[in-house]
Amino acid sequence: QRYVYKYMGWTYPRTMHWGRVQIHEFGKLSTSAIKKAIAEGTYTGWDDPRLPTIRAIKRRGILPEALRKFMLDLGLGETDISLSLDTLYAENRKIIDPIANRYFFVWDPVELEIEGAEPKIAKAPIHPTRGGLREIPAGTKILITRNDADSLKEGERLRLKDLYNIEVTGISPLRVKFIGTDMDLVKKDKARIIHWVPLDGLIVRVLSPDGEYTGIGERGMEKELDKVVQFERFGFVRIDSVRGDEVVAYFTHK
Known about the structure:
Helix content: 10-25%
CATH class of the largest domain: Mainly Alpha
Strand content: 35-45%
Low-confidence stretches: none
CATH superfamily of the largest domain: Glutamyl-trna Synthetase, Domain 2
Oligomer: single chain
Number of helices: 7
Radius of gyration: 24 Å
Distance between the termini: 48 Å
Number of strands: 18
Structural class: alpha/beta
CATH architecture of the largest domain: Orthogonal Bundle
Shape: elongated
C-alpha cells in the first residue's frame, strides 16, 4: 500500500493495527463462516444463542454495561488473543444478581407423590436480599428434576425448598413421605435441599449454547417478558417469549 501511495504522490494516511480476539467457547468462527452457516440453516440467525455475536449475547441477557466494561478492560493490542467468556459473565452477574427475580424451573421432570402431605401454599423469596414473597401451590404430587430423582437413596431425608421435609421410603418405584417442616433437618443434619414445581406449571424451553432444556416452571415468570431472571439451581435466563402457558427463555450464564 505504501508503494501505491508513493507512486501516486498521495499522502499516506495514519493506520492502526490490532490483533484478533478468539473466544474459547466458540473456537475459530469468522463472519463469513457464520453467514454461510446461517444460509445453510445450521444457525437460526445472527442472534442464535450458539453464536458469539453481539445480537446473540444481547438476546441471552448480557447487558450493554457488562459488555462495555469487558471490552474496555480487554483493550486494544497488535497481538492476537484468546480468552474465555467467563470474565464477561462475571461482569454481567455483578449487574443482574441484585435485580433478577428468582423462580423454580424443573428440567426433565419426574413426578413425585408425597405420602402424608396435604396441599399447601409455599412462600418463597422473590429475591434473597430485596424482600418480597412469591406463592407456589403444592399438592400431594409435585415435579423434581430427573437428576435429583436418580440421586435419591432409600432412607435419605431432604428438604423441598421453601416447602417441607421428606424421607425416601423406596427407590423402585420411587416413594417418599412427609416428615415435617422443621428447618433443623437442614441446619443440624445438613440435609440436601432440592427444588420442585407443581404439576400445573408453565411449559418452559431454555435455549442455550449447549442445546435445549425442556421442563416445567412455576407460574409468575410469564410476567417477566424481556427480563433476566434466575432459575434457582440452574442459572440466569432471559425470558424471550410467552405464548399462553408456554415460555421460551435464553440461557444467560450460571
